[in-house]
Every structure is written in structure tokens, then in C-alpha cells.
Design brief:
CATH topology: Rossmann fold
Strand order of the largest sheet: 1-2-4-5-3-6-7
Number of domains: 1
Order of helices and strands: EEEHEHHEHEHHEH
Distance between the termini: 17 Å
CATH architecture: 3-Layer(aba) Sandwich
Structural class: alpha/beta
CATH class: Alpha Beta
Number of helices: 7
Length: 209
């Protein structure tokens, strides 16, 4: 079941199921360039987690900016504040035993580390969606890279504003070689290894979908 709720002055998507068997709080934080595949992979992951009987909240960067972070611009200070607010909501969900999936560009390493520090060790899983810039520009579903190259958009991450790739992400995804389903399975396998998902519910040879 997919529902939209309001909390902390924002809307967020919540995929829920009848059977919540696990109460380990954990944050899965997707970071990467615009059009790298963060949101699409996060949605596939969330739906699969629900099918396994776990409740999950998805905080998408674009959605959050229209509610919780409405009014913030794209200066470094505003971008940091945007991620700080998402991180606060995520940390509260984790603190209460929830599983939250965050998908935001979050270009600066220091603020990602700050968000990580809000959570208990092992409860923040950084997922680096390592799609090359040239591939992101080819995808460009919103035409943002074209506008950035034309100078219409200023301070666009990857063009005239830096993206600081994680140095030690728990998981790195290749969206060129792997499908969203395959990448979701990599994350699920990681959660199983940490005991945050039930490894008995899925045979090693079975498929995600």
C-alpha cells in the first residue's frame, strides 16, 4: 500500500504492509548526481522491502524541497540546510525503529557526515549512485543539464558546483551495467548481512522480482 502523509510540515511517501516483523531503525541514504538513478532505485527498493513485510518511509529530495525545505535556494548554505532537515527527519524515524530511504543529491561530504553522526553506528547506510556525469547528461529527463550548460541554471551540481563523492560509502551502485532491480538486490543483501532484513525470507537463488 502506498500512502502520503504529512510530518514536520512536509509530505512524504510511505509504503506499508500488514506485517511489520522487524523493528531495527536504519537509514539508507542515496547520494549522486542529478539523473544518476537515485529516486528510481529507491522506489524499487522500497516496494521490495514492503513485500518482505517491513514498513519503509521514502524521503525524496525533490518532494522535500516543496514542503519541509520550501524557500531554500541553491547556495552551499541552503543546500546544507536542506540536507540537514532531511537528515533530522530521517534520524527521528530511525530513532523510533523505522526504516527510511532518502534520495537526495547531497553533494557535500561534510553535511552527509553530519547526518551520519546523528544516528547510531551502523544505522546509516550511504549508497553512492556512481553514474558518470556524461551518462547523467545523456539521460537529463528534466533538461536541467542543458540549461546548466547554456548558463541558464547557475550553481548546478556537476557543472559549475562540485559534487564530492563519498570516500567510504557502504554501497556503490553502477546504474550503467546494472538494472534498478539488480542494484536493489545489492542493498537488500547488505541489509541481510547486517541482520536488518530476514535472510530466511529469500532463497539465495531467487530473484527480487
Amino acid at each position: 500500500m502506498l500512502a502520503v502523509h504529512t510530518q514536520y510540515g512536509m509530505d512524504y511517501m510511505e509504503f506499508s504492509s500488514q506485517n511489520d516483523r522487524y523493528r531495527h531503525g536504519v537509514c539508507i541514504w542515496f547520494t549522486g548526481l542529478s539523473a544518476s538513478g537515485k529516486s528510481s532505485t529507491a522506489d524499487v527498493l522500497a516496494r521490495w522491502i514492503v513485500e518482505q513485510g517491513r514498513r519503509v518511509t521514502v524521503l525524496d529530495g525533490d518532494v522535500v524541497r516543496t514542503h519541509l525545505c520550501k524557500g531554500l535556494g541553491f547556495s552551499k548554505e541552503d543546500r546544507d540546510e536542506n540536507i540537514r532537515r532531511i537528515g533530522f527527519v530521517a534520524s527521528e524515524i530511525v530513532r523510533h525503529g523505522g526504516l527510511v530511504v532518502c534520495a537526495a543529491i547531497s553533494p557535500y561530504r561534510a553535511i552527509r557526515d553530519e547526518v551520519r553522526s546523528r544516528m547510531q553506528e551502523g544505522r546509516f547506510i550511504e549508497v553512492y549512485v556512481a553514474t558518470p556525469l556524461e551518462v547523467c547528461e545523456q539521460r537529463d529527463p528534466k533538461g536541467l543539464y542543458v540549461k546548466a550548460r547554456q548558463g541558464i541554471l547557475k550553481g548546478f551540481t556537476g557543472i559549475d558546483d562540485p559534487y564530492e563523492a563519498p570516500l567510504q560509502a557502504e554501497i556503490t551502485l553502477d546504474t550503467v551495467a546494472n538494472s534498478e532491480e539488480e542494484n536493489s538486490r545489492l542493498i537488500i543483501d547488505h541489509l541481510m548481512q547486517l541482520g536488518l532484513m530476514d535472510g530466511q525470507s529469500l532463497a539465495p537463488s531467487s530473484k527480487v522480482f
